Amino acid sequence: MATAPKELENAIGLEEIHTEKQEPPKGQKTFTVEEAVETIGFGRFHILLFLIMGSTGVAEAMEIMLIAVVSPFIRCEWQLQDWQVALVTTMVFFGYMVFSIVLGLLADRYGRWKILLLSFLWAAYFSLLTSFAPSYIWFVFLRAMVGGGVSGHAQGLIIKTEFLPTKYRGYMLPLSQVFWLAGSLLIIGLASVVNPTIGWRWLIRVASIPGILLILVFKFIPESARYNVSTGNVTAALATLRRIAKMNRAAMPEGVLREPTKERRGRFKDLIHPKYLRTTLQIWIIWLGIAFAYYGVILASAELLERDLVCGSAAEPVQDSGDDSEESRSPCHCRLFGPAAYRTMIISTAGEIALNPLNILGINFLGRRLSLCITMGCTALFFLLLNICTSSAGMIGFLFMLRALVSANFNTIYIYTAEVYPTTMRALGMGTSGSLCRVGAMVAPFISQVLMSASFIGALCLFSSVCVVCAISALTLPIETKGRALQVCVTTPGAPGYLNAI
């Protein structure tokens, strides 16, 4: 008796599959999502998409950069040693690493939009809880949970990538760096006002506001049409494309939307299949190295300002104006930022946008691989130049260029990773890359905040060497994605379509 309902259910399932795979009548025109996106072109919808999804970078930057501006205050409040301060940042990225893979898998199965919304709710909730942390242990744990939520923000980039026409991806995606820059500058500016007045706990509460506001406007952005088609939900994909065409005042392609439904969702073993193995391994190396250099520069900047480590000197730090308390001379090195330190951080952070025009030109004319190789090589050089004995202005100049270069590196690898994998495993590819990226970010605090105090030149040489390895890996990547259409799915290995998918 129990078998009858099961047989009926299977019959219904087979009927549905058969219906999805029915061939259109002979002579009827068909089109794919890729062709629809290219035909509709760039318009008002994409501007709205750029503003809303780009603003996720503001919230992410504020949560990530928060640690750099509150570290001196938690060091003083809980009398922390160097390794304890470094552990806070490491645990943030540990949470990011773990949840990045999980959320990437969930996004490929249940949709980018749902996971993006979930990640913002998660991050905002735990960020607010962090402001009430009663002890150092609770602070570390709650910030790790915030890192887990922030890891899902990458789905905003994937949604942007999957809706943008091919020729605009190389221009619009790097411009998203403006939002990260805005978030970084905003948290530094707020810190300079809030920290000395009402305290670091209120800074954390204020920093969570942009993320909460963004949750309210996500309803204006639909689920990815490419994702819907890859899961067989052609009706939803078609409705989304028609909505975009209406907003852009453009015509839809003639015919019916027809695209093969993938037989299975992206799995981790697809990333390490022989056809993808080399690309995946090299991408992982590059992500790890870029994050190591990027967060190394951010934390090293704060460390240089807090300890006055210039030219590898081990001199006693010079007290910043207005701070001559007993706390500042404690064994745990309690020294708060003054106005000059915040100004320097703002100037160096502004460097993140300095090379954006050149980065966009390089990505679109030299290609993703060569452009990344050049900027990684220059990053290695400027890490070594940081050891040159120079004035305070000279140090700020080197930090400015380093921030510009590491930002350009992130721009390029984000675009490349989003383009190289097919739709059915794009979120998984971004998720696993994000996880490896956080391994580099987890190590960076111990180099910038611990090793740099013991051996300044040793820390700089380590950063530089990693950048050289990344430059070589970038140049030898097997696939160039410049001008390449986004791939839809991975078909059965060995089939003709499989080569097209990669």
Explain this structure to me?
The chain has 502 residues and is mainly α. Strands 1-2 form a two-stranded parallel sheet. It is built from 23 helices and 2 strands.
Topology:
Blueprint: H1 3-20, E1 30-31, H2 33-40, H3 44-54, H4 56-78, H5 82-110, H6 112-130, H7 136-150, H8 154-163, H9 166-175, H10 177-197, H11 200-207, H12 209-217, H13 225-230, H14 234-248, E2 256-257, H15 268-271, H16 274-307, H17 339-350, H18 356-366, H19 368-385, H20 392-420, H21 423-454, H22 456-475, H23 496-501
Parallel strand pairs: 1-2
Helix pairs in contact: 2-14, 3-8, 4-5, 4-7, 4-10, 4-12, 4-16, 5-6, 5-7, 5-21, 6-7, 6-8, 6-12, 8-21, 9-18, 9-20, 10-11, 10-17, 16-17, 16-20, 16-21, 16-22, 17-20, 18-19, 19-20, 19-22, 20-21, 21-22
Keywords:
about 500 residues, 23 helices, mainly alpha, two-stranded parallel sheet
Query: Spatial order of the strands in the main sheet?
Result: 1-2
Shape: globular
Q: Which value, in Å, is the CA radius of gyration?
A: 24 Å
List SSEs in N-to-C order.
HEHHHHHHHHHHHHHEHHHHHHHHH
**Low-pLDDT segments:** 1-22, 312-331, 492-502
